[in-house]
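Box S1 | Example of a co-folding query
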Amino acid sequence: MPADTALLVIDIQNDFCPGGALAVAEGDQIVSGINALMDEHSSVILTQDWHPAGHSSFASSHEGKGPYELTEMPYGPQVLWPDHCVIGSHGAAFHPDLRTDAAQMIVRKGFRPHIDSYSAFFENDRSTATGLHGYLQERGIRSLVLTGLATDFCVAYSALDAARLGYAVELHESLCRAIDLDGSLAAAKSQLRAAGVKIS
Ligand code: VGL
Ligand code: ZN
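Box S1 (continued) | Returned holo structure for zinc ion
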């Protein structure tokens, strides 16, 4: 891979794998393929969903609401999730087989109590930056390969932001797995295609 291409690995954490709090079906089955892909990239970046206890994206923080219901946040509609990826917990840790040693940068997101963050670039208010764009610019990265969990949430939001910021974006669908809530996977894929993201 050219030196201006980076591999961005989204949220390969215990809570998104079978047995975890917000398990994505087959989430663990992509780990070895992602590890192998790391060998082809000179720049590897991981993201880690990283929420304080009582986070506003947790259904348990909203009386009368259950997981996977929608609520209205000051920044717009927000899906409510089971408690997951609580800072420092086993669920927030990377899957034990992920080659974290190969990563040069780990971006943590969702740590502000009142804003969720799906994208590796911007929180769900769409304006609070994580700092990843500045990091990539300073390293001269212009093209991104995305893999990880979940295809229709954190991977899709990251890919859409990356495309909007001007990166060439390729998403390896076989190295992603989806939550697929009420057609969210099909909706995400059509948005990704419309944004010029290459789905391979
Ligand atoms: C994610 C829901 C809540 C993801 C993170 O990684 O796709 N989904 N937090
Ligand atoms: Zn989360």
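The mean pLDDT is 98. The pocket of pyrazine-2-carboxylic acid (ligand 1) is lined by residues 11, 16, 49, 81, 118, 149-150, 153-154 (CB under 6 Å).
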